[in-house]
Design goal:
seven-stranded mixed β-sheet; 6 helices; Pept_tRNA_hydro_CS; 36% helix; Rossmann fold; 21% strand; alpha/beta; single chain
Length: 199
């Protein structure tokens, strides 16, 4: 039996926020992988995103037996917290029911890791969410994009598209990350970590 505190929302509605930048110019960027994972989850639900007044594209529905709100903020990454906190207030979701899906420089490409709370590792989207929610106590599903080559600044690296070699495997890794989100919702953090951190 999973402890309620181990499961996002503890049986209530969960906000799944994919992080990225709006507009077609950013669509294939490493920084936008959160959007890619949310789009995969939307496909599994058979639903389409619609515009919400909180400056986000959203889907309300059920996923892995949970009531969920999928959200792709329409603000730029460093202002992500505003639509995320706005949606949390609108739907009555506590920070412990928020799951941020985002790119992670400190993980190899395609690796998936999950955690609750902790630092932001310099990620502007997470920093904005923490500031807007007033706490670090929310879930994170981290998709590895690897470190930039040579002396390329991290800020430039995450705003570039995945390489041709990475794109050949990208759909597979997005699917794995979406599986991790579903496992987190269904079985809790410890179970999801056991399964996906071993890969």
């Amino acid at each position: 039996m999973t402890e309620p505190s181990d499961v996002p929302g503890a049986g209530e509605r969960v906000l799944l926020a994919g992080l990225g930048n709006p507009g077609p110019g950013y669509a294939g960027n490493r920084h936008n992988i959160g959007f890619g994972v949310l789009e995969e989850l939307a496909s599994r639900m058979g639903e389409k995103f619609t515009s919400h007044k909180a400056r986000a594209d959203v889907i309300e529905g059920r996923l892995a037996g949970c009531r969920v709100v999928l959200a792709k903020p329409r603000s730029y990454m460093n202002l992500t917290g505003r639509p995320v906190s706005g949606l949390a207030r609108y739907f009555g979701i506590e920070p412990s029911g928020v799951v941020a899906v985002h790119d992670e420089l400190d993980l190899d490409f395609g690796a998936v890791r999950l955690k609750f709370g902790g630092g932001e590792s310099g990620h502007n989207g997470l920093r904005s969410i923490t500031k807007s929610l007033g706490t670090k106590d929310y879930y994170r599903v981290r998709f590895g994009v690897g470190r930039p080559p040579g002396r390329m600044p991290a800020a430039d690296y995450v705003l570039k598209d995945f390489s041709a070699a990475e794109r050949r495997e990208l759909d597979l890794h997005i699917g794995t990350c979406a599986d991790a989100v579903e496992t987190l919702l269904e079985k809790g953090l410890a179970a999801a970590q056991t399964i996906f951190h071993a890969r």
